[in-house]
Design brief:
Shape: elongated
Helix content: 55-70%
Mean pLDDT: 83
Strand content: 5-15%
Number of strands: 12
Largest sheet: 6 strands, mixed
Low-confidence stretches: 574-579
Number of helices: 19
Distance between the termini: 67 Å
Radius of gyration: 35 Å
Structural class: alpha/beta
């Protein structure tokens, strides 16, 4: 709770003003029945119109002040709750930006989306209710009971019976409902995951005619959520009958006992009238408290989920005195062991001992799951090793400032991502200060200029979210150009030319040799033609180094490489090359 409330920030002032105005509004409301009793007993009963006019004017003034204070409280409550929600979303988003890949793996993407939307909205609504109703209801309850004690101490004792009854009922409801709502929000994550997966892969769904299957999967998740909500709401529905039972119990007792006291002369008509008003105010405040209990039951589950993200600390952090310069593009793996789940004993990479000179072109080849992507992820410190060390420019990557390291180690990942905006906007992710001429030069090196020149607006052509309006090969070439704009000391292509033809692939590699000869280039590929001209080729097998040599030597000495080469050549070569 403290972690979440810490995000209130500058809206604390609005919260305090809202509480103050709500208090003044309650004071005005509580005094009105008391003034009414005076008008009845001293004015109407005694036929004294001067008292009626005098106290009538006071009532009008107090009612107007109550209206002003209520409107002000509503305004500041809206400002404080909306600002609180905005701060929460910003804090969650900001913390997510610091997460390493392992932190993001811990929280699913749909789960993070639910936390920033549904959970924050729940907390916003609960906070607005708390600073208004949670202030108004207890104050009304206390002040109403004090006035009841002043009017009739004996009759006021019966209200305690109703109060104890409601506290017990609401306590049971709240404890049980909180357990259900915890489960509800986990199911929200599943529902969001189903929607996100379906929408992002809609082309695959339609290509395989799996609409019915996806609809059934979503329907199942939706029905599970429906059943949990019915269960929770059915439990919360007990709140209203319990409240009405307490209210009618108090009204019946006040009516019966009040009639006896008036006949006996120990209570006036005005006092009984005001007592009825205070009883109703007291019961209504209890009803508001019950609504607060319901909202808190829902929001506490959301608060815990939000706090989990806010309290999550990045697995990777900069050292106290980080190295701020990468000397060159040399890369050394010193007997590296790595597992995605630390301490699990299931290593993704085992005993990797590898030394790459600055400016070398290194090909990496191996079967699916052999650890190729895991290897290059360690170079730019997207993950940390379990044992051993990875050095870039002769320095352990854990000693660098991460921003400095990643600016000098440019990675084009397997999953190429483009963002909505122009082609130039996307290219300048690599270098925000890049001129249009520099962007064009990078695109020439990546062979992206060929298709950009054919587009209606050239480099100002709008790219849809995710690059939906360009092909896979075009997307890959734009991502390579974006990486080149960083002018890195190490360039990593993680199977990033798989969607381009071999002729274009060859042009890109030739451009690399001419334009960035001093940059260390690591090319992960599935086809031998993409790596055979590399200075050396690394063959990975089941997370271990199986071979590391030139193309010619590996053909003679390495069985895995020879098998891959023979299967591709005998199979007719690549799709656009003769065998």
């Amino acid at each position: 709770m403290r972690t979440v409330l810490h995000q209130l920030g500058r809206y604390k002032k609005d919260t305090v003003i809202c509480v103050l105005m709500t208090t003044l509004e309650v004071v005005m409301d509580i005094l009105l029945p008391f003034i009414t009793a005076i008008i009845i007993d001293r004015g109407l009963s005694a036929a004294n119109m001067s008292v009626v006019w005098r106290y009538g004017i006071i009532m009008v003034v107090m009612a107007f002040l109550g209206l002003v204070f209520g409107a002000g409280a509503g305004k500041y409550a809206a400002s404080a709750s909306s600002g609180f929600a905005a701060n929460l979303r910003e804090a969650i988003y900001s913390n997510i930006q610091t997460f390493s890949f392992s932190n993001i793996d811990k929280f699913s993407v749909p789960g993070l989306v639910t936390r920033m939307t549904t959970d924050v909205t729940n907390v916003q609504n609960a906070f607005m209710m708390l600073i208004r109703m949670a202030v108004r209801a207890p104050l009304t309850l206390v002040f109403s009971y004090i006035m009841c004690l002043i009017i009739s101490p004996r009759m006021s004792l019966m209200f305690l019976i109703a109060l104890v009854f409601l506290v017990v009922v609401l306590g049971v409801i709240m404890i049980t409902a909180m357990k259900i709502f915890n489960d509800v929000f986990h199911r929200y994550d599943d529902l969001n995951a189903s929607v996100q997966e379906n929408v992002s892969a809609i082309r695959v769904v339609k290509a395989f005619v799996r609409e019915d299957f996806e609809e059934q999967k979503f329907s199942k998740a939706s029905k599970t959520l429906y059943k949990l909500f019915v269960k929770a709401e059915s439990l919360l529905a007990i709140n209203n009958p319990a409240m009405m039972l307490a209210i009618y119990f108090c009204i019946m007792l006040v009516s019966w006992l009040g009639a006896h006291y008036i006949v006996a002369g120990s209570m006036t008509t005005g006092e009984l009238t005001s007592l009825f008003s205070y009883v109703l105010s007291l019961m209504m405040s209890l009803m508001m408290l019950s609504m607060i209990v319901v909202m808190i039951s829902i929001s506490l589950a959301s608060i815990r989920r939000i706090a989990e993200v806010l309290r999550e600390t990045p697995d990777l952090a900069d050292p106290e005195n980080p190295v701020m310069e990468v000397k060159d593009g040399s890369i050394d793996f010193d007997h590296v062991q790595f597992a995605y789940k630390h301490g699990s004993g299931k290593n993704t990479l085992s005993d990797i001992d590898l030394h790459i000179h600055s400016g070398e072109t290194i090909g990496v080849i191996g079967g699916t799951g052999s650890g190729k992507s895991s290897l290059v992820n360690l170079i730019c410190r997207l993950y940390d090793v379990d044992e051993g060390a990875v050095r870039v420019g002769g320095v352990d990557v854990r000693k660098y400032d991460m921003e400095v390291l990643r600016n000098q180690v440019s990675v084009v990942l397997q999953k190429n991502t483009l963002f909505s905006g122009s082609i130039l906007d996307n290219l300048r992710w690599g270098n925000p200060q890049a001129t249009e001429e520099e962007c064009m030069e990078a695109c020439k090196s990546a062979c992206a200029d060929e298709f950009i020149d054919r587009m209606p607006d050239g480099y100002h052509t709008h790219i849809e979210r995710g690059g939906a309006n360009v092909s896979g090969g075009q997307k890959q070439r734009l991502c390579i150009a974006r990486a080149l704009l960083k002018k890195p000391k190490v360039l990593i292509l993680d199977d990033s030319t798989s969607a381009v033809d071999t002729a274009t692939d060859a042009k890109i590699r030739e451009a690399f040799q001419k334009k960035i000869p001093g940059t260390t280039k690591i090319i992960i590929a599935q086809r031998v033609s993409s790596v055979e001209n590399a200075d050396r080729i690394l063959v990975l097998d089941n997370g271990r180094i199986n071979g590391f040599d030139t193309h010619e030597n590996l053909l003679k000495t390495n069985a895995i490489y020879s098998e891959i080469y023979e299967s591709q050549v005998q199979g007719g070569g690549d799709f656009d090359q003769p065998a």
